[in-house]
Amino acid sequence: MEPLPKVELHVHLDCCLSYDVVSLLRPSISYSEFRERFVAPPRCTNLADFLTRAPSGIALMQTEHELRAVTLDLFRQFQLDNILYAEIRFAPLLHLERGLLPARVVRTVNDAVEEGIRSTGIEARIILCTLRHFTAAQSLETVALAERFRGTRVVALDLAADEAGFPIDPHVEAFEFAITQEIHRTAHAGEARGADSVRETLRNFQPTRIGHGVRSVEDPTLLNQLRDQRIHLEVCPSSNIQTNVYSSISDHPVHRLYKAGVSLSINTDARTITDTTLEKEYSVMREHFGWSDEEFRSSNTDAIHAAFIPEALKQSLLKRLNGHYPTARP
Description:
Blueprint: E1 6-12, H1 19-25, H2 31-38, H3 47-50, H4 54-59, H5 64-81, E2 83-90, H6 102-120, E3 123-131, H7 136-148, E4 154-160, H8 172-180, E5 184-189, H9 195-205, E6 209-212, H10 220-229, E7 232-235, H11 237-242, H12 254-259, E8 264-266, H13 278-289, H14 293-306, H15 311-322
Parallel strand pairs: 1-2, 2-3, 3-4, 4-5, 5-6, 6-7, 7-8
Helix pairs in contact: 1-5, 5-6, 7-8, 14-15
């Protein structure tokens, strides 16, 4: 039976290298070595520990050939998951070690996304990440790339990486520029830190979405704000267990957030590091929270409405989505 169609808004390109593409780029690697270097254990100490697996993928994404191969491999993974639409995020400034310039990095990934769309029929867009440990200058360089590539598949700016270890202060100017230029914005918050992180992110960055955001559940007033302003949470359940945000999936607040009327979607975050797929995440939701087709239809509808795409494409995706869900409403 074919998996139901899905939308994925939160997936990191450099954390999703399959063994197929890794062995293509580095034929000498064994499967056991791949598992050791690229896949994190089911439970990490914290987010910072989890992120120590990312450099293995980044090291294999330093040429145009490698960037293209990794991007197209992710489209192959999307096909297996029956993804209708995805937003792929990555930090261009991490891919300069072998002489590529930042604009060439973005152009290469953009071209590969174009190729993936043509070959699979899966719609996709790109989010450029600045990182918590970056300088203000690096964040400004990243948002300038988002502005330069406006009109391509590049659609937004994100702030990612070690939320608990680094403040947002160096990145405020870049997000202020994004606001003035009307560049879409999302940002990681409410994962390694609590509701206060979400509040400061909303106040300083004015995003329409929050990456993770699950610890918003700790503040009822914040929940009301998220619901009233239709701030969308990009929830990644298994990742949150792996990064030790919650001790078990039964403790995860995703269902409470859903029942509270907060707009949210289910995502993988890091398919390789977490050793997951979106179909696996949906199985977790079915098994532990009793989600049915109706909850998945609703969360995917929320995801489409929150996507950084024109209204006409949203309506087209909604039509395709509802055509496959037996409980779809008019």
